[in-house]
Amino acid sequence: MKSLSEGELLKRIRLMRDMEPLYEGDLREDNAQAEAWLRERLRTEYRSLLTTMPTEWLPLKDITSEVTVAKKAEGIREVSLPRGILRLAEVKMKGDAEPAKLITADSPEAEAQKSPLSRGGRHSPIGIMRAGGIVRIFGGKESESDEAERVMAVMCPEEGIYELTPEMENELIKNCIENEENR
Q1: 63, 114 in Cβ contact below 8 A?
Q2: Cα 161 to the chain's mean position, in Å?
Q3: 75, 153, 85, 151: which is closest to 113 by C-alpha?
Q4: Which of 69, 73, 81, 157 qualifies as a FRET site for 43, CA 20 to 30 Å off?
């Protein structure tokens, strides 16, 4: 993973799109408009990739030490997440065989978690995202650990800095140099 500034990325994209000034002092009328358009395109594409790309291609941060876990009922634990998370990628509790399958509260699987008979177990825990940075992990009786083993997330990027994996960098640049009609 590497960090690039917005200026570094814009320079690479301008070169690939033949948008660099032709000579020192080139003051073409369209430079300011083209620069603003390209800057907005870069920001839009980056945000889109952070929310839609497969998590294995994203710049993930291990936030395990920043979460707190509380037991709520038999087989139910709540993980409180720190601020600044853009996308949660993985939650694995100690004692669970697999990471929790992360779903939304309006998912059909979420309804099944209300009953201890149909909820996820040690081998197939379910994590439901809730308001306020909480993930409720549903497992069976055997899922009693109140410690997180691994919690991975995509964090909100710092303004003007782009955290990129090689796959993400390639996709971002490709998307920014392609014409809209080719996508």
Answers
A1: no
A2: 15
A3: 75
A4: 81
**Cα distance between residue 39 and residue 75, in whole Å:** 48
Name the amino acid, one letter, at 101.
K
Q: Which of 141, 156, 163, 160 is nearest to 74 (CA)?
A: 141
Query: What is the reported pTM?
Result: 0.80
How many contiguous H segments (helices) and E segments (strands) does the chain have? 4, 10
Show pLDDT as tens, one digit a residue, over the chain (183 residues). 899 999 999 888 888 877 666 556 555 556 677 788 889 999 999 999 999 999 999 999 999 999 999 988 777 889 999 999 999 999 999 888 889 999 888 888 877 777 666 666 656 888 998 888 999 998 755 556 678 999 999 999 888 999 999 999 999 999 988 865 455
How far the first Cα of the chain sits from its last, in Å, is: 26
- Separation between Cα atoms, residue 149 and residue 104, nearest integer Å: 22
Q: 8: part of which helix (H) or strand (E)? A: helix 6-16
